[in-house]
Amino acid sequence: MINVGIVGASGYTGLELVKMLLTHPQFVLKYLATTTGDTVIEAIHPSLVDVISYPVEKASVEAVAENCDLVFLALPHKASMGFAKELLNQGVKVVDLSADYRLDLETYEEHYCEHEDKEHLDESVYALIEYYREDLKKAKLVAGPGCYPTATLLGILPFIPYLDHNAPLFVDAKSGVSGAGKKLSESTHFVNVNDNIFAYNPLKHRHAPEIAEKIEKVHGVKMNVNFVPHLIPATRGELVSVYATLKDEGIEPLEVLKEFYKDDMFIRIREKPVDIKSTAGTHFCDIFAMKNGNGLFVNSAIDNLLRGASSQALVAANLMCGFSEGLGVPTIAYMP
Q1: Is 285 an active-site residue?
Q2: For residue 332, with 0-12 CB atoms within 10 Å meaning exposed, 13-18 middle and 19 or more buried, which class applies?
Q3: What would the pLDDT profile of 195-234 be if each residue is shown by its tens digit?
Q4: Among residues 68, 113, 147, 285, which one is catalytic?
């Protein structure tokens, strides 16, 4: 059995981690923390009353190192690296859900802030499971991908060799409000979100350089990524539509996907455009694709809190500890 903890247990991704770890056959939840502590988990998340009663402490590197073999950091960017560098030096394996270890140094500092743990940055493994599975098995530090990059990259990466790399890549992405976290803002206020849909940070969102960087790392190709996210009046779920230009019109998009992901248990290739309800509450990524001449349409759906964050982190932890990839991962959708 492996002792694990969560730092940042008060947020939505922290709650999803708690729910999965409670029934995990190999991980034992030994530590929960927030930046303030001095409470219990069921007070933060009332849905856990009569399910679990567990103290939530003020986050401490020493307490994590004393109690945990592996820790999930469900913290904002910059806060995570402050904990991670100390924990790694004490031999604790780290799965970081923030952006702090996802990107190359230059890309990170251009779009976030100065990096405080350059020593460990090159050691991190990007937890896009289907592409870095073998590296994750040897990792001590794992960086969870962003939710939008997860859905986008899983959809478009199989097609990069068939694309006109001089043509721009357009990504139209839509997410439920939980993707913005628990903190209230004007844009996530019920009156603003209900019966409404709108783009935010078009062409300037920080996930665009993440998508572009990972395309280059996997395929050695620089592409112009035009990324436009939208907020939709749904609690959870993410729908991504990618538009690209083929250089080879002879391919059959669905056949490309089926062949590429034939051994991946959590990728489902669909015969018609995908929807967010079919993946809500699961680790699955559903993908559909079709073409019109040299125009390519790729459509993917995930649960933004699970495949886009917490269940992807759990799968990475499974691999880091030598367990089966699907251990403890949710597979039954919240339907209807």
Answers
A1: no
A2: exposed
A3: 999 999 999 999 999 999 999 999 999 999 999 999 999 9
A4: 147
Measured at the alpha carbon of residue 309, what is the angle toward residues 10 and 130, in degrees to the nearest 5? 155
Amino acid at 289: A
Hey, what domains does the chain have and what are their CATH numbers?
A: 2-123 (3.40.50.720), 148-304 (3.30.360.10)
User: Global pTM?
Assistant: 0.97
**CA atoms of 146 and 202, how far apart (whole Å):** 16
pLDDT tens for each residue of 113-122:
999 999 999 9
Q: Are strands 55-58 and 39-40 parallel, antiparallel or unpaired?
A: antiparallel
DSSP one-letter code for 31: E
Is omega for the bond preceding 209 within 30 degrees of 0, making it cis? no
- DSSP per residue, 252-276: -HHHHHHHHTTT-TTEEE-SS---S
What pairing do the DSSP bridges indicate for beta strands 93-96 and 70-73? Answer: parallel
